[in-house]
Structure to design on (379 residues):
């Protein structure tokens, strides 16, 4: 994209943002001084689809509200930022394979690897404040979690999933952990050792927990799909047709949208902002100046995304001046996150229909194994 085109694009977005800020006043803004950009987008969405959010009108929101089906749909998109930022954070350190070896860092309890020590310790702490009582959370070391002491009251979670104990015990963390160490880390981190072991394990823990939460949302998605077509899934499960179940639950259009979003977000978040293009501001900037900054930032983010997408498809990763290759992030979603989520969905649906899932849908493997990512670039 030429400099002239860039300036024209920025000016266009700046004008559009300024006009929108002047012309559009959300219906709820006059009712509450606590207005944020997130609630602005929420109000805009409600205006489009004609819905209202009663939770916004109340000061207290319960756990049951936050695990509604509407929340589940929206949180899958929000989790993309969490995962991408976590992978960007991990990419700043070298692979540091020593932290994954038992005894690699001496002096740890039971000869555990540094990562296992950090991750299990984090889970013990989080368990004490009820993290793993939530149906959307799954521990990597459930056998090491302390017993509940009832010092804190139980939270009221809605019954969104089947009450089958076998379904409740579905936990894909063993295969996720293996693929994270063997496939993801080599793809995003440079080879070698920089001795930043503690920081490496902190970022590993954040990435693993974010990835685990994302793929286990397949349970909620599977339940929703089952309720929309129980006869269809029951017929396929009774016939032992796992491929048919996979085909019925697959929505290729939605998957492609997820991949596009993941790549664009990785492209935008993984690049330094073009500070030279920001308008000059002072401490006493007016609202108009703030609008200019927002518009300029939006323009630069889109331009950076377009340019980086072109770079990654036209010239490969060497031309891409980012913290992580967007094609790698897209490949992680395409070859690991989405397939693992769908494997969980198949296993859930088999159990939901009263049969054990086929062995290829066990929690210690992927139905289609991946040993190395295949990023899609130049055609």
């Amino acid at each position: 994209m030429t400099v002239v085109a860039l300036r024209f694009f920025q000016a266009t977005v700046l004008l559009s943002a300024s006009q929108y800020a002047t012309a559009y006043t959300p219906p709820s803004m006059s009712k509450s001084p606590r207005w944020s950009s997130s609630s602005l987008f929420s109000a805009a969405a409600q205006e489009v689809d004609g819905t209202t959010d009663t939770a916004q009108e109340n000061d207290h929101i319960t756990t049951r509200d936050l695990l509604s089906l509407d929340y589940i749909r929206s949180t899958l998109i929000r989790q993309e930022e969490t995962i991408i930022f976590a992978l960007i954070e991990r990419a700043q350190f070298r692979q540091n394979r020593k932290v994954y070896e038992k005894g690699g860092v001496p002096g740890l309890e039971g000869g555990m690897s540094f990562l296992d020590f950090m991750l299990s310790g984090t889970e013990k702490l989080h368990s004490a404040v009820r993290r793993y009582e939530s149906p959307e959370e799954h521990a990597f070391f459930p056998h090491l979690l302390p017993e509940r002491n009832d010092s804190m009251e139980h939270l009221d979670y809605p019954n969104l999933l089947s009450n089958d104990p076998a379904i409740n015990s579905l936990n894909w963390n063993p295969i996720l952990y293996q693929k994270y160490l063997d496939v993801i880390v080599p793809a995003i981190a440079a080879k070698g050792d920089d001795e930043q072991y503690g920081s490496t394990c902190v970022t590993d823990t954040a990435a693993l927990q974010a990835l685990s939460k994302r793929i286990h949302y397949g349970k909620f998605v599977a339940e929703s799909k089952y309720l929309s077509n129980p006869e269809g899934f029951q017929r396929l499960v009774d016939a032992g047709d796992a491929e048919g179940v996979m085909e019925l639950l697959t929505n290729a259009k939605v998957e492609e949208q997820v991949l596009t979003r993941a790549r664009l977000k990785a492209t935008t978040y993984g690049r330094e902002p073009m500070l030279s293009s920001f308008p000059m501001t002072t401490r006493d900037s007016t609202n108009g100046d703030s609008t200019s900054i927002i518009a300029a930032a939006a323009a630069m983010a889109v331009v950076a995304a377009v340019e980086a997408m072109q770079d990654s498809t036209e010239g490969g990763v060497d031309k891409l001046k980012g913290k992580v290759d967007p094609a790698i992030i897209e490949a992680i979603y395409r070859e690991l996150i989405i397939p693992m989520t769908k494997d969980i969905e198949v296993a859930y649906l088999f159990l939901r229909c009263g049969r054990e899932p086929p062995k290829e849908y066990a929690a210690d493997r992927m139905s289609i194994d991946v040993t190395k990512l295949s990023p899609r670039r130049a055609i």
